Amino acid sequence: MAEDEMRGDDRPLWGRVAVVTGASRGAGRGIALELGAAGATVYVTGRSTRAEPARGYDNILRENGLAAPPGSIDETAEEVARLGGTGIAVRVDHTRDDEVRALFGRVEAEHGGLDLLVNNAWGGHEAFSVTSFGAPFWEQDMDQWDAMFDRGVRNHLLASRIAAPILIRQKRGLIVTTTYWDRGHYLKGNLFYDVAKASMNRLAFAMAEELRPHGVASLAVSPGWMRTELVLASQKATEETWREHPSLARTESPRYLGRAVAALAGDVEVLRKSGGIHRVADLAAEYGFTDTDGRLVPPFELDGE
To answer: Where do transmembrane segments lie in this chain (predicted)?
Structure first.
């Protein structure tokens, strides 16, 4: 098939430029891969490279029997290319203003603009502990607040703040915030996590209010319970064996989220969704995509559990 023939339905995001933060593994990796499969050029950013994994995950690695964080920006970028896109790995610490500015400066210099920013870099796992995560807030260590806000919510605001002028000059573009949301219900189990996700949702809404007059959309996307590498490790499962684990029956792959983001990026009327929080399952029903195994995975809802 000629290259031009591949730019239609098979490559709906051909020529689009995206930045996906925190894409070494998990949600970010799933999003980057699906954008690549749709033909996009994807800047895959994060701290984990093949030569040097990110630091700061000691607790969660120890509790899951892992020697190092799985995945790297290099591996994700290579898989983006294998799927038909262009993957560009850039090591970025998204807590550092100078590194984030350098990233978007490079994107604009190399491509003249930006179509999509996916805010996914999340520091919450750096303070995660299975034994303490579900404790009442008065027993929680304030390190979790620092991880989720200073290295989570702030990451999203910083990247958006630096990318926004590029999008505004173009009078188009989309900022996606990955989050978790269950119709406003309290995310039982960790107050800090609940407040952090609520802050991300409000950030996406507030940015939409200021960006809408410039033709730029901002919205939040909420997946269900994803089979990330760390979730699989916690259950002693793999992507090939997860069906053997009843505890994982309600899970979905990170690429289900990726397909939602790709569908939004290809929607010429996405500005109508700006400011909203959109569940992956609802977007799947609307846009007509499924998870990698062909399932239309229902929303992961907490009430009644």
So the answer is: none
* Domains of the chain, residue spans: 4-287
pTM: 0.92
Which of 96-105, 237-246, 296-305 shows the lowest per-residue confidence on average (mean pLDDT)?
A: 296-305
Q: Can 57 be counted among the known catalytic residues?
A: no
Q: At what angle do helices 97-111 and 154-170 cross, to 10 degrees?
A: 30
Q: Which of 43, 57, 193, 256 is catalytic?
A: 193
Can you give the pLDDT at residue 129? 67
Name the band, by pLDDT with cuts 50, 70 and 90, for residue 4. Answer: very low
**Over the range 161-191, which residues count as b (16 or more CB within 10 Å of their CB) and which as e?**
ebbbebbbeeebbbbbbbbbbbeeeebeebb
Stretch (H or E) spanning 207: helix 191-211
> Nearest 5°: CA angle at 74, between 70 and 76?
70
- Select the CATH number that applies to the domain covering 4-287 from these four: 3.30.420.100, 3.40.50.720, 2.40.37.10, 3.40.50.300: 3.40.50.720
Strand ranges for the chain from DSSP E:
17-20, 41-46, 86-91, 116-119, 174-178, 217-222, 277-279
For residue 298, the 8-state DSSP code is P
Beta-bridge partner residues of 17: 41
Q: Which of 150, 302, 128 is nearest to 231 (CA)?
A: 128
Longest dimension (CA), the chain: 62
